[in-house]
Amino acid sequence: MIKKLVDKIKKTEAPIVVGLDPKFSLMPSFLLEEAIKEHGESLEAAAEAIFNFNKEIVDAVYDLIPAVKPQIAMYEQFGIPGLLAFKKTVDYCHEKGLIVIGDAKRGDIGSTSESYAIAHIGKIAVGSKTFAPFDEDFVTVNPYLGSDGVKPFIKVCNEHDKGIFVLVKTSNPSSGEFQDQKVGEKPLYEMVGEKVSEWGLDSMDGDYSNIGAVVGATYPEMGKVLRKIMPKAYILVPGYGAQGGTAKDLAPFFNEDGLGAIVNSSRGIIAAWQKEEYAKFGEKNFADASRQAVLDMKADIASVLK
Fold first, then answer.
1. Average pLDDT over residues 23-31
2. Which domain holds residue 199?
3. For 138, phi and psi rounded to 5 degrees?
4. Which of 2, 136, 149, 199 could form a disulfide bond with 107, CB atoms 3.0-4.6 angstroms apart?
5. Residue 305 reports pLDDT greater than 90
6. How far apart are alpha carbons 141 and 108 in whole angstroms?
7. Minimal CA–CA distance to 91: which of 63, 61, 119, 132?
8. What burial letters (b/e) apply to 54-82, b meaning 16+ CB within 10 Å?
9. 246 has pLDDT over 80
10. C-alpha angle with apex 101: 133 to 123, nearest 5 degrees?
């Protein structure tokens, strides 16, 4: 699966993933108002509004980018209707030819971890038929429980040509409370990076492994170290834009050929219509603002990689 992602990155010349993290505060109000007219004030109305929001953005940007990353919590908060909107979003993005990274941060042990893997990137048999429940291409994984929690995902990756991104050094300010703590002479995030490199050897797909890593743009010096520790791991880089990461912070995450990393932007793209520089598009044309934000992000990253 990582080879498919790399090929899409090369084709689009955009190492960008758009985070589809819909919240009412980021959405034009008319979308919910229209859904309420049809479904009343209900979870079903909320789910329809967030799917329609996603659909318009995807329609506006799918030809510019290789991948999207829906954060499942944004959908789970609306219960079963929200999860149905998540699945509809995944399926619609696949129809548009996009790679889907499910941001679920799952992680447990044994059969529980295997069940999470099956739900998101695997298949399940029901009688004589087989189904892919959520059917993302990648899913994010929390490694806190160690190899017992990660290896079931790797097994499913190898069975179904899928991939995972393991949390190594996250972009949030308090990540250092645990991730930066020394274990002997090394910080914990380096030890996790070493395990990602080791796990990755069991799932190679071309030049890179299906076992990637999440490393925040807000920590470029740590990213530089981890890039060397995990030479075969693709790095998913959150934290660009709204969380404070800048284009100049991104260079350490990439290899010399401009590959090796894909940068996420969520609010900076899906809520671009709310930013002063895109105000000219207005609320009704929010998706056009998102398209321009992708073009600007693409140029910003290209300026650094060159």
1. 97
2. 2-305
3. -135, 160
4. 149
5. no
6. 9
7. 132
8. bbbbbebbbebbbbbbbbbebbeebeebb
9. no
10. 25
The one-letter amino acid at 305: L
105 is an active site residue = yes
**Any residues with CB less than 8 A from the CB of 292 and at least 6 apart, and which?**
272, 278, 281
What is the tally of structural domains in the chain? 1
Q: What is the CATH classification number for the domain harbouring 131?
A: 3.20.20.70
Strand duo 129-131 + 138-141: pairing: unpaired
108 backbone dihedrals φ, ψ, rounded to 5°: -150, -145
Distances (CA, A) of 280 to 28, 275, 284, 295, 300: 15, 10, 11, 16, 21
Q: Is pLDDT above 90 for 240?
A: no
pLDDT of residue 208: 96
Residues 6+ apart with CB under 8 A from 186: none
Residues 4, 23, 105, 275: which is the catalytic one? Answer: 105
Q: Stretch 54-83: mean pLDDT, rounded?
A: 98
